[in-house]
Structure formats: structure tokens, C-alpha cells
UniProtKB/TrEMBL annotation:
It is found in: Cell membrane; Cytoplasm; Nucleus. PROSITE patterns: PH_DOMAIN. Keywords: Cell membrane, Cytoplasm, Membrane, Nucleus, Phosphoprotein. It holds the Pfam family PH. One of its GO terms (cellular component) is plasma membrane. This is SKAP1 protein. InterPro entries: PH-like_dom_sf, PH_domain, SKAP_fam. Residues 144-160 have a biased composition (Polar residues). Residues 131-164 are annotated as: Disordered. Residues 14-117 form the PH domain.
Length: 182
């Protein structure tokens, strides 16, 4: 929840990408423009958008966790259709943007996907380890195929030190420090 509190542009911390994008308005009126120019800021977990780069209060912010980003040429019919991308999350609002150029649109998508991949890599490191850890006692006791059990344990023993070290990294020591000791 702290991450969602409004912050001035300069204070958002860990800024990975920022720049002007056109954001499609959710409820555009007959008089209001469908696309509004916004100063957008992406940090490790949150996407902020402001009226302009000097604004103190964001017009809106949302956590990018569980979102996916992709190019979306269908959003516009004009010459800027190749500059469009969207952020999608099942059950949540879809955010639609137009970047200044196709290359910029790709860069926004790449940056967001990179962040999301980093989040899922961290969770995928610990989940398989936990599952294997729970299964191991049963495999040793119940398995009638002793050859299979032996080879299964050999591969587990080779993998365990690496996985445990990475799991420790998350909670205690920076990866560089942990690796240098060994």
C-alpha cells in the first residue's frame, strides 16, 4: 500500500523509464479528447502518470504486478497505430498508450516485461524447491523402482546447494557477497 501513495515525480525512486505517452481516457466525453498526453514514470513495481513532468500529484498510479504488456496496433487507425501498446491484467482495467515512436512503444513493453519476468523468476526459484522438498521423503520410502529413486536423489543433491544459496540471497545477503565466500 505504501507504494500507491501519491509522490512527486522526483520522489518515485528507482525510475526505470519515463517520458510522455498518450493515454487513452477511460470515459472520454464528446468534448474531451480520447487520448491525453501524460508524463509516465515506471519504477520497479508501479506505473505513475502525471498531467506533465512538473506535476506533484499523479493523475493515477497502478501496480504492474500481474499485468502483461504488449504492442497493440489495433488501438488506433491513424499513422500512429504502430506506436500503441497496452497493459492487461485479467479482472482489472486495461491501460492503453501511444508512444512517440514504434521504437519507444517497444522499449516500454520490453522494460515492463523485463520487470515482470524478474518478479516471476524470483517466485519460480523457490516454488519448485519447496515442491521437491515435500516429495523427496515419499519418493525415498514409497518408490519400488530403486534405480529411479537413486538417480532422482543424485540430481536433487546436485541442484540443492544452488537453489538453497539463491533462496538465502533473497532474504539475507546480496548475491555477489554469497558467491565470493565459496
Amino acid at each position: 500500500l505504501e507504494e500507491m501513495t501519491p509522490k512527486p515525480v522526483q520522489d518515485t525512486g528507482n525510475i526505470l523509464k519515463q517520458g510522455y505517452l498518450e493515454k487513452r481516457s477511460r470515459e472520454h466525453s464528446f468534448f474531451g479528447s480520447e487520448w491525453q498526453r501524460r508524463w509516465c514514470v515506471l519504477n520497479r513495481r508501479t506505473f505513475y502518470y502525471y498531467a506533465n513532468e512538473k506535476s506533484k500529484q499523479p493523475k493515477g498510479t497502478f501496480s504492474i504486478e500481474h499485468y502483461s504488456a504488449r504492442l497493440a496496433f489495433h488501438l488506433r487507425k491513424d499513422s500512429r497505430k504502430r506506436c500503441c501498446f497496452e497493459l492487461i491484467c485479467p479482472g482489472k482495467r486495461t491501460y492503453e498508450f501511444t508512444a512517440p515512436s514504434p521504437a519507444e512503444a517497444e522499449d516500454w513493453v520490453d522494460q515492463i516485461q523485463f520487470l515482470l519476468k524478474g518478479e516471476s523468476d524470483l517466485s519460480s526459484l523457490t516454488i519448485p524447491y519447496d515442491e521437491e522438498d515435500e516429495e523427496k521423503p515419499y519418493n525415498d520410502v514409497d518408490s519400488s523402482d530403486s534405480v529411479n529413486t537413486i538417480s532422482h536423489n543424485t540430481t536433487l543433491n546436485q541442484d540443492e546447494p544452488n537453489i538453497e544459496m539463491e533462496e538465502d540471497d533473497i532474504y539475507e545477503v546480496l548475491p555477489g557477497k554469497q558467491l565470493n565466500k565459496q
